[in-house]
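Q: Structure for this?
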Amino acid sequence: MDRKELLPRTIDLQLEDDMQYHRRAWQIQSIARVAAAVILLAALIGLWGQGPLSKATEGEAGDPLRLEYDRFGQFRTNTTLKLKVDDAARTDDKLQVWLSRDYMERYQVQEISPEPDRVAVDNGHLVYTLSVAEPSDTYDIVFQLVPTRFGLARGDAGTSEGKLLSFTQLIYP
Amino acid sequence: MVSVLRAAAVYGALLVFFRLSGKRTLAQVTTFDLILTLIISESIQQALVGENGSFTNALLIILTLVSVEVGLSWLSARSEKIDKAVNGVPLLLVDNGEVLHERMKKVRVTEDDILSSARRLQGLERIDQIKYAVMETDGSISVIPHN
């Protein structure tokens, strides 16, 4: 390895051989390569959304309400919120869950599955009322949402018994 | 307002990415490089336009990009530091017939790349016919033969 080649040279050609600039540029490029590798690795594990690091759960098994969601999302890119409701929250053949209005205002609802019979606004919450055709131990309610704003989105979720969960999503631009 | 900011941000991000990746990325020397350029342009299209497909938005984006380009050119003409940061500096790769391998390694250029330019630009046959070879700021290689 001939390091003399990395020193400035005086040449006949009218060209400034600015090796100080080049060495600094190469150092910055080396740092940038490491940063790029870290960013890509972070993407693979879900730091920028859609990956193992992004998957989050609120609530424990046996709780009346549990939430599965993506901790990290991207602006105008679909994200899924899954509410798992215990049968204890059912009243006759109706199930009621709510999400905080402040949170839902940051998203466009693409689909709710199963489709609620009614959506009402009550005390700063959006209350979804669903029919239960066949009783079960737990019921999954899946919200397909598209963020319309980026930044930190804080939300609460609950059933007719009250607030049960809080969660936070970071939506990247 | 959002369109202008988004366009400026995309321009800035592309400038940083390509400057950090090294000059050869700009040179488009292979078919794969051309494909890469096309894929990159498709990837940023949605980020630039978003859901706004209006003629007005398109004009704003074009105007922003051209203005940023002109602005950077104006600044580069007035400041050597900014000029070097934005455009880079040519790098000597062959000095009076001596091939500078260490420099070539740093910028990911091979002797074959230099010979390819030598054949294309000067009709040269061998590396010993080259007096100077310079990697220009756009990633292309200029060759000056021995007389």
